[in-house]
Specification:
This protein is an alpha+beta fold. The chain has eleven helices and four strands.
């Protein structure tokens, strides 16, 4: 209990809480302003909620989409507790349960009916434009949440259950679950809109991959120099990153040299290049982008002593 209380008092907790709330507010705005008016149904719990809400409407029963979203997410969270395990993150619990209230929030702040011009059926007036706006907003939200090890809940929970019990890859699980949800839209939408939703689900995955790769991008730097010791000291003592040293032999000259390799952020890479120029260090340098890093690279306790490669 004391550990929990200490964590609640940390800057990291409150920063991530704010980021989770902001990310979900962006996602809720995308759902409310671009998905709900046009009745677009993409592979998401929000899309399924729109279908269920409209089916209740056809039966003469008024049920808000926000209510359906909250109920479905609550059911999925209970299923995750028993089917996936207790280690399922509290962050997902928080983000999943605030989506419904945030939809209500945007409805109070600015009802989408006020943004729809006369003669149009949606905010943008075109299903394709609605789709693009929705996917971009939700992709940004999901990328922000993934970056702090959170998720939007809903479809992510369903995909993890499919992954665990049917042994599909998590990416395939998301696609399968999303496609099934899109197909439920046949109950309320014409064929054209259902296909649009399927394309949007695919585009959403591409956009998330793009934003995630951009936000996680790091530089893999390889430097061959006789002054490798100065570079090693600068990387470790100034940049506080690890590095690896390799003995290399020139194919043309046959000369033995040492290559320094390190993984750096963009700012750290710029600082290193400025140091090399300022100190007039002769070096042969190559650099490439890396979008995924696993292991101790981001662990503050190990940043000084472990290899950056």
């Amino acid at each position: 209990m004391n550990n929990v209380l200490r964590y609640l008092c940390t800057f990291k907790f409150w920063k991530e809480l704010v980021l989770m709330t902001l990310g979900m507010a962006i996602a809720a705005a995308g759902v409310y302003y671009f998905m709900m008016p046009s009745k677009l149904v993409l592979g998401s719990i929000s899309g399924l909620s729109i279908v269920i809400s409209n089916l209740f409407g056809l039966a003469g029963i008024t049920v808000k989409v926000s209510v359906v979203v909250t109920v479905i997410n609550a059911i999925l969270l209970i299923m995750a507790w028993f089917l996936i395990g207790k280690e399922f993150g509290a962050k997902t619990v928080y983000t999943a349960l605030i989506l419904g209230p945030l939809l209500e929030f945007w409805e109070k702040v600015m009802p989408y009916e006020k943004l729809i011009e006369p003669g149009l059926t949606s905010v943008m007036g075109d299903p394709l434009l609605d789709l693009i706006c929705f996917v971009l907003m939700v992709s940004i939200s999901q990328t922000l949440l993934f970056h702090i090890n959170a998720s939007t809940g809903g479809l992510d929970i369903l995909a993890k259950i499919v992954n665990k019990y049917l042994h599909f890859d998590i990416g395939v699980s998301v696609s399968v679950a999303g496609a099934i949800i899109c197909c439920t839209a046949f109950a309320i939408n014409p064929f054209r809109l259902v296909v649009t939703g399927l394309v949007g689900t695919w585009f959403n995955g591409l956009a998330i991959d793009h934003f995630t790769a951009s936000i996680n991008k790091r530089k893999r730097v390889c430097i061959i120099s006789k002054e490798y010791e100065r570079l090693r000291v600068y990387i470790i003592d100034t940049l506080h990153r690890g590095c690896s040293l390799y003995e290399v032999k020139g194919g043309y000259s046959g000369e033995i040299n040492v290559e320094v390799q390190a993984l750096l952020t963009q700012d750290e890479f710029s600082n290193l290049m400025n140091y090399i120029r300022t100190e007039k260090i002769d070096a042969f340098i190559t650099a490439g982008n890396v979008s995924e890093i696993y292991g101790l690279w981001n662990n503050q306790k190990h940043r000084r002593g472990n290899s950056g490669v």
